[in-house]
Structure formats: C-alpha cells, structure tokens
Design brief:
The complex is a heterotrimer of chains A (326), B (294) and C (334). Chain A has a domain at 101-172. Helix content of chain A is 32%, strand content 23%. Chain A has helices spanning 48-55, 82-87, 99-102, 109-119, 125-138, 144-148, 157-169, 187-202, 214-220, 238-243, 248-256, 296-300, and strands spanning 6-17, 20-32, 37-41, 63-71, 74-75, 92-95, 175-179, 206-211, 223-228, 231-237, 306-308, 311-313. In chain B, α3 packs across α9 (246-255), α6 (156-183) packs antiparallel against α8 and α7 (186-193) packs across α8. Chain B is elongated. Chain C is built from twelve helices and twelve strands. An eight-stranded mixed beta sheet of chain C has the order 6-7-8-3-9-10-12-11, with helices on both faces. In chain C, strands 2-1-4-5 form a four-stranded antiparallel beta sheet. The chains are: A alpha/beta (326), B mainly alpha (294), C alpha/beta (334). At the B-C interface, α7 and α8 of B face α2, α3 and α4 of C.
Chain lengths: 326, 294, 334
C-alpha cells in the first residue's frame, strides 16, 4: 500500500492553565493511508479533537504539541513551519462540527469558496468559479449557481455543512479531517452528508472522521481508533472492532448504545462512573475505575499499546475471541 | 442545608473564588485597590491628625494664603482665607466619596430593579419601561440639576439624589440587556416550571446572575459621579460652605493658580489619583468577572 | 383502568413573524399544529422528530411556558389555562420537567442542594429545615449522587452529574408525570445509558409517567410505551412502540428509521430499507404557505392529492394512527 499519507508519532498536547498544565493528548501514534477512512472514536476529555488540532498547528492559545507528525514524508511540527503552512488548507483540509465556524457570515458562499484558491494564486477567477460549482455539485448541493450568491445565514444547517465540505474540497486535498461533521444535523440530513463523504473517500481521498457516534463510524470507516483520556486504547479494522472488540471500554461502549435492531431489554448496559476530566492523570490504566474486568495490575501499571497486525490494544486483560456484542 | 451535609465537605465559593484569584493576578488592579483603600483611610483619619478645624482661619499667617510647610503645621498650605488645606482636602475627599457612594447605591438599587424587571417581563411592559428610560435619557441633565438646585436650594442630599436619579438609567439598560439574555436560559424555564412567581424569579435567579456586570459598572460609575459632583461644584452648584468637596477645592484653587499653585495642585492630585485608581480597579473587576458570565 | 393524567386536544402554537409593513397583518409561524396527546398514569410516551418539528414547543406549551393559540390541555380531567394560577399550581405539583442542557438548567449561582430545596419549597410550601434537608439528601441519593455534592455548584460537576441533579430537582416533590425535553441529547454516550437507566428505574419505583422528547430514535424506543412522530408541527404517526418500529407506516417514519446509522458495519453494506427522504426538513416558515401534507415536498410517494389535501389522522386495526393518504397502498417493509 505504500507509505502512509499521515504519520503521527508519540504526539502529546498540553495546555498551560492557571491551575497548572493539562495534558489533553498523551503520546498518541497513528497512521492514515491514502483512500481510507480512519474514524477516531471517543467521548469528551478523550483528546480526539486536540489530537488533530495539535498535529496541524491549530491549537488554542496556551496549547503546545510535542512529537512527530509527517504528512507525505514532510515534517509538520519541526522547527521549519513552512511545510505546515503550505499543506494546511491545500493538501489537508478540515471540516468542523458547526459550519458557522467555518463560514464567514458576511461573505457569500461563492466568495468564500473561491477565496480559498484565489488567495494562494492556484487558479484565476474563471477557473475558481468553475471549481466552485464542481465542488458544490460534488456535495450534492441543490441549485449550486444560486448558492454562489447566497450568504451562509440564508442556507439551512445541512446546506451550510455541505458548503463547508465543498470549501474543503476546493483545493482537491489528499486528506480531509472532519470533526463531528454531522453531529449538529438532523438524522435524515446526516445520512445525505455521510453519502457525500463516502463518495469523496471512494474517489481516493483520505478521510479522518472524529466522532462519538458509533453508528456513523460503522457506516463509513475502514479503520477505527478508540481514544480514552488522551490515549489510544484500541485500534482495528471496522468490522473486527464491532464484531470482536478487544478493549473493555470499546466493548462497554458498544454494549451501552441503544440500537434499533437490538431486542429490547429492561436496562441498557451502562458504563459506571464518568469520563475523566481533561488532564486528569492517575496511576495505572485510566479506564480501570470504570472497567468491569479490571484486575489489581490495572491500577498499578499503565498498559502499553500492543500491536498485532492490523489491531492494537492497550489493556492488561484484553477480551479474547470476544463474543462481543448482543 | 447544613443539617445533613458532613462538615468535611470543602465548599469553595464557586464563581467568586475564581474571580478573586484572577483579580489578585492583575497587579494594576491590586495596586489600585490598595490605593483606593489608602485614600479612604486618609480621608477618614486625615482631619483628625491635624490640629486645625475645617473652617478655622489661621490669623497668624501673613499673607493668609501660605504655601505648604512643616513648621507652621499646615502641611498642605492654606487657602485664600487662611484655612488649613490638609484638613479641607481630606474632608473634601470624604464628601466626594460619600456623594459618589450614595449616588451609586441609589443608581444600583433603582437601575437593577428596573432593568431586571423590564428584561425579564419583556413584551409591552419592557417596551414601556425602557421608553421611560429613553425619555429621561433625552432630558438635558444639567438643566434638570440646575432647576432642582434653584428650587430646593443647594444641599448635599439634593446633590446625591439628583445624581443618583439620573445615574440609574445606564445601569437599567445594562441590567435589562443581561436579563433579556438570562430569560432564555434553561434554568429560568426550570424556575417557571416550578411555579415560582415572577418577582421571586427576578429576585432569586435574575438579579444574582447580573451582579457581575453590575459590580463592574458600579465601580466605574463612582469616578464618574465624583467628576460630575466636582463639575457641579466648579459651577458653584455643589456643596455649601463650610463643607467642601474635591471639586470645590479644585474650583477655588483654579482661581489662585498663579499666585498660590498649591491650592490647585494638591486637591487635583488627590482627585486624579482617586479617579485613576477606581478606573483601574473597575477594569480589573470586569476582566475578573466577565469570563465567567453566561 | 389507569387514570388519564394528561389530555391534549388540538393544540396549536404560533409565533408572530415580522409584520409586512408597519400596519400589515402579522405573518405567523405555526410551530405546533393541531396535536392530540394522551398520557395515562405510569405510561411512557415518546415524541420524535427532527428540527422544526415542534416537539420542544409542544413540551413548553404543556408545561405552561408558552401560550397556545388553540386547543386544550387537561390535567387529570381539569382544563388548565395559562391565566389560571391556581390550576397551574395544582398541575405543577404533579408535572415537572428535565431539560436538555444539564449545566444550563441549573442556576449557576446556587448549589445543587439549594436548587433541589428550592423546588421542594416551591411545590410543597415552606418546610422545616431538618425535614427539607433530609428530603433533599434522600432524593440526591435516589438519583445516584453523593450527598456531599449538594454543596457544589453546577460548573464544578460533570454533565451527567448535573443532569442527575436536574432530575432530583424535578422529582423531589413526587410528580406523576415527568417531561424530558431532549434530556440525554447533550450527554456523552456512556453517560446517556446511565441516565436512561435511571429514568427507567424511577418509573418503576414511583410509577412515574414519562413524556420523552428526543430526536434519538433508539433511546425513545428503549424508554417509551407509545411513540408519536411529529413533522413540521403535525402528528404524522402514532403507535405503540413495537408496532411503530417493526412496521412503520408513514413514509416519513420510514425515512427516519432508515436514516439512523446503526452501529453494525455488516448491515450497512446491505441495501437501504426504504427510500431516503429527499432534501431537508423545510423550515416551518416555508410550510406556512403550503396546504396539503407538510411532507409532500420530500415524499417519494407524494402525488397531487397529497399537495392539495391535508391527510387526516386515520386509525388502523392495531391502534396505529397514520396521517397519510396512501398508507394502505405503501409497499410492505422487507
């Protein structure tokens, strides 16, 4: 398959706060290959968003990222910041949860989309407009020509998100990082937007999808990495993750989500306790306090990530031949 | 709640603790707070330290207006009538501060009540209440005060009433804006669902949550009021003899600027320091309290 | 025969839009349009729909937070109107609510103990200090909160803890019906399951009836006995839970169920079960002008009659209500 497109090695993200430093991401390593969709699953405090904000130099004030990030062989976090500035927005694009954050309220859709390519001198005005229409069509935006002249507030939520994705596609990037792109959308609109992302992936685009919604993951991901308290606790190809989750957190998460196709029982299998606050650190495994299968060792020693082929898991007592989900 | 809760629970004061911490980190604000306290203490104790009374004319001096000196006990000098300036400056500071605090208190009480009620009730009541504010805002303030002074004579109480009566307008607007925003919050909906009547919701849920901006604005109002009172005094409409205020002292000192500069410099220095310190403190409070709002 | 707690008939709620000109007539946005609803003691009714369907407005109207333009709300047989303070007070003692934003639904300047105590005093009158403390502590325990947390402020607690506190506030005076307006939507996935379980437990222990409003179909399916589907302010389908999810009859319900992504990669690669809805939920403004079925614009089965004529709510043999002209003719689900 060749070298991975994006390689993250031992990335840590820390924020300086008046109460002391808070580590949002702790020594995370992962790879994204061309033409695949990697889903990052986690709840609040897992660090899933900060991982990519840190990789691409988008951290808020007070945040610092340490580690190695390579995109197509080029070092992004090294002393030379030029690769980062060149690649960000051209070969790597980001899509966020709230499209109103990506779209400027006082510019028309056409202006904003074209600005992406005009600013960098990549295309001239006529070519830019043609590319705009192409991008809007590829996200199945109804009536693209009319949209060019409209302002973001005149579009519905789903249309805005589509415009944001179109904006990401303007430079024909190799990688799109989408952070909860459909969470704020109605479920029927979400299905359509996911279709759009799936088509982009099928055309060779690499896609990183950050989400907490396991249903979305099942529908589009090729590989999944599960994060908890700033670390990756499990990663696997999607079918294997759902069929036989090795880490107790993954298994518990899958078991606790109510599903339409599952038989109805009296109670959901909830995970006790709550996700740790960002920066909370403890001895041993972060999940141990909530883990149904924790042993003494789990509270003493933090499990290292063990890699076996396409799967990896950080657990002292991973579930074997997991008969997994109901 | 104390009955069933173990005493070992650490309760921090919640939002106020964070604000206090932020404020302590702001050096300018801390220094200003200290300065304000210092000036207040000086104002209270100053007149007691000097042997002279506020209206005692020192006939031993020639000329009557004498510059500051340690030997004759007039540390700040005397004014054109031979009265000790040290005592007068600190007494004047007392008066200025009193007027400012009382007037600000009046504006806060009326402004918060008016604004919170208008903002929470909304609709037509809000419309009418804020139209009253708009009309009062449009009145020429100076004329209003002058007419009051002419009709009722120049008394201290009248001054702070007049200032307070107009000062509440901006406070009401600020509070109304906050109340409008708060009305949309879910805890207000929850309070309505509990069946709490409007006056209780305003008192228990709206007002405590607007205190942040109110405190900030009140702190910034005090210097404005002092300045305004000084202005009135400068025009001759302020406090009457033998009482004096910083404004009057500045006014009188300005007349003697060329021959007895200390009469202008000393009260101006005190006034400027007080205003500067209050402004810095107000800014610091705003920074400390605002991030937590909403 | 179980007692009827809540009976809603023909409820409509409208909001004024900007006037045309200075003296023109108001244009109205109809958020809720002629909705009927029944909740019986101990029953759990779920209301689902997407944005703009009016479910939150419906909840607010029932709670007396918003004035209906038409229709009636009866609590235990007695009509309740917004102006009727005594009637509202009577209803509120037995009808309480939990809202979407766990932290935002608690006053940031009150400890959670104070919030719960305030509810008790508001609904049951003045209390002896010791008795009040005891009730608050007991209720906090019931929702799984350590009594130590009573002194904390909302911003010091997690989302799940705040929502438990909000539930404690809602149940401290022993209501008979709890309205949950997107009560788990803002919570982490692992915490959602806990709160769903908690609501189920409270139902069993106290015979509490629930009116559960959500856009999350799987959660509604788990918690409800009966489900109502709203679209643009109107009831399009209403059925007992099993019937609705096993055999959805209205095209919108089918589209909704088909669109929910299931956490099962194997099933995803199978064909879609039903044609997806086209386009997006129209904004309520757009539907104001349209007559006929509100869903016609997106419905793959719509015809001229659908666009002209508003379909009435019809009942089939199994107690399933559908508002569609063609429901009998629709192909059976696979």
């Amino acid at each position: 398959m060749g070298a991975p497109l994006l390689e993250i090695r031992d990335l840590s993200v820390e924020f300086a706060t008046p109460r002391g430093p808070i580590a949002a991401v702790r020594e995370v390593s992962l790879e994204v290959r061309r033409g695949e969709c990697l889903a990052i699953v986690g709840e609040s405090g897992s660090g899933k968003s900060q991982l990519f904000l840190g990789s691409f130099g988008l951290l808020a004030a007070g945040g610092r990222a340490e580690g190695a990030v390579r995109f197509d062989g080029r070092d992004l976090l090294g002393p030379d910041t030029s690769p980062l500035r060149e690649l960000r927005g051209t070969r790597v694009a980001m899509v966020f949860q709230d499209p109103m954050n990506a779209l400027t309220p006082h510019l028309t859709i056409g202006q904003q989309l074209c600005e992406v390519v005009l600013d960098r001198g990549l295309l001239d005005a006529a070519e830019a407009r043609a590319r705009c229409l192409e991008a809007l069509r590829s996200v199945r935006m109804p009536d693209p020509e009319a949209r060019l002249r409209q302002y973001p507030h005149e579009l519905s939520g789903g249309q805005r998100q589509r415009a944001a994705i179109a904006m990401a596609l303007m430079t024909r990037p190799d990688l799109i990082v989408a952070d909860e792109p459909t969470t704020a959308l109605d479920v029927t609109v979400q299905a359509q937007v996911l279709d759009v992302l799936r088509e982009a992936r099928d055309l060779g685009l690499a896609l990183v999808l950050i989400t907490h919604d396991l249903g979305v993951v099942a529908g589009i991901a090729d590989r999944v990495a599960v994060m908890y308290a700033g670390r990756i606790v499990e990663s696997a190809p999607v079918r294997e993750l759902f069929a036989a989750p090795a880490h107790p957190y993954t298994a518990a998460l899958l078991a606790s989500v109510p599903r339409l196709d599952a038989p109805l029982t009296g109670r959901l299998e909830a995970i006790e306790g709550q996700p740790p606050q960002p920066g909370e650190e403890r001895h041993g495994c972060s999940f141990a306090p909530r883990c149904p299968s924790a042993v003494a060792q789990c509270r003493e020693l933090r499990p290292a990530l063990q890699v076996a082929g396409e799967r990896s898991v950080a657990c002292h007592a991973p579930r074997a031949h997991a008969g997994a989900r109901p | 709640m104390a009955g069933s809760i173990p005493a070992s629970v650490t309760t921090d004061g919640g939002l106020w603790v964070d604000a206090r911490r932020r404020l302590r980190g702001n050096r300018a604000a801390v220094a200003s707070a200290a300065l304000v306290v210092l000036l207040v203490v000086a104002a209270l104790l100053g007149p007691m330290l000097s042997p002279y009374a506020i209206d005692h004319v020192d006939w031993t001096l020639s000329p009557l207006a004498s510059p500051p000196s340690f030997e004759n006990g007039h540390w700040f000098g005397t004014d054109s009538n031979g009265r000790d300036l040290f005592v007068r400056v600190w007494s004047g500071t007392q008066v200025s501060l009193l007027v400012a605090l009382l007037a600000t208190a009046v504006s806060v009480v009326i402004g918060v009540a008016w604004g919170a009620t208008a903002g929470y009730l909304g609709g037509r009541i809000d419309g009418w209440m804020m139209r009253v504010v708009d009309v009062l805002y449009a009145l020429p303030y100076m004329f209003f005060v002058i007419i009051l002074t002419v009709v009722f004579g120049r008394s201290l109480w009248l001054i702070f009433l007049a200032i307070g009566a107009v000062g509440w307008l901006t406070m009401a607007r600020i509070v109304r804006g906050q109340a409008l925003a708060l009305r949309q919050r879910e805890f207000v909906a929850a309070a309505v669902t509990l069946g709490l009547p409007a006056h209780r919701i305003i008192a228990r849920h709206i007002v405590p949550n607007v205190l942040g901006p109110v405190i900030v604005y009140a702190t910034l109002t005090v210097p404005q009021v002092i300045l305004f009172e000084s202005f009135l005094s400068f025009l001759g409409l302020g406090v009457q003899e033998p009482l004096t205020s910083l404004g009057r002292l500045v006014a009188e000192g300005a007349l003697e600027m060329e021959t007895a500069p200390w009469q202008l410099l000393v009260p101006s220095a005190v006034l400027a320091t007080l205003l500067l310190a209050l402004n810095f403190l107000g800014d610091g409070l705003r920074d400390a309290l605002d991030p937590r709002q909403g | 025969m179980s007692e009827h707690l809540l009976q809603v008939r023909g409820l409509s709620v409208r909001f004024p839009q900007r006037r045309a000109g200075l003296f023109g007539a108001h244009r109205w946005l109809t958020a809720v349009d002629g909705v009927d609803l029944d909740v019986v003691a101990g029953q759990s009714v779920g209301i689902v729909g997407e944005s703009g369907c009016g479910k939150s407005t419906l909840a607010r109207a029932i709670l007396g937070l918003v004035k209906p333009a038409a229709g009636s709300i009866d609590w235990r047989g007695t009509p309740v109107r917004l102006g009727d303070a005594a009637g509202l007070r009577r209803m509120r003692r037995e009808l309480q609510a939990v809202f979407q934003d766990p932290v935002g639904s608690l006053d940031p300047r009150m400890t959670i103990g104070e919030s719960v105590a305030e509810a008790l005093v508001a609904l049951e009158g003045r209390q002896q200090r010791a008795a009040c403390d005891a009730r608050v502590a007991a209720t906090l325990g019931e929702v799984g909160l350590d009594v130590v947390l009573a002194r904390r402020y909302p911003h010091e607690l997690s989302g799940g803890q705040c929502q438990r506190a909000a539930i404690a506030r809602a149940i401290v005076a022993r209501p008979r019906l709890l309205v949950c307006d997107e009560a788990v939507s803002a919570l982490d996935v692992s915490v959602q399951a806990q709160i769903v379980n908690l609501l189920g437990e409270l139902r069993e222990r106290h015979g509490l009836a629930l009116l559960f409003i959500s856009h999350n179909l799987a959660v509604v399916r788990h918690l409800s006995d009966e489900v109502i589907v709203l679209y643009l302010g109107r009831v399009v389908e209403r059925a007992p839970r099993e019937a609705l999810f096993a055999m959805p009859r209205h095209p919108y319900t089918r589209a909704l169920l088909a669109a929910v992504p299931e956490p099962d990669p194997v099933a995803r690669s199978a064909e879609r079960r039903a044609p997806l809805a086209e386009g997006e939920p129209a904004s309520p403004q757009a539907s104001a002008a349209a007559s006929g079925c509100a869903y016609a614009a997106r419905c793959p089965f719509a015809d001229e009659r659908c666009r002209r004529e508003l379909p009435p709510l019809e009942r089939d043999a199994a107690g399933h209500f559908i508002a569609c002209h063609h429901w009998r003719a629709l192909p059976r689900q696979p």
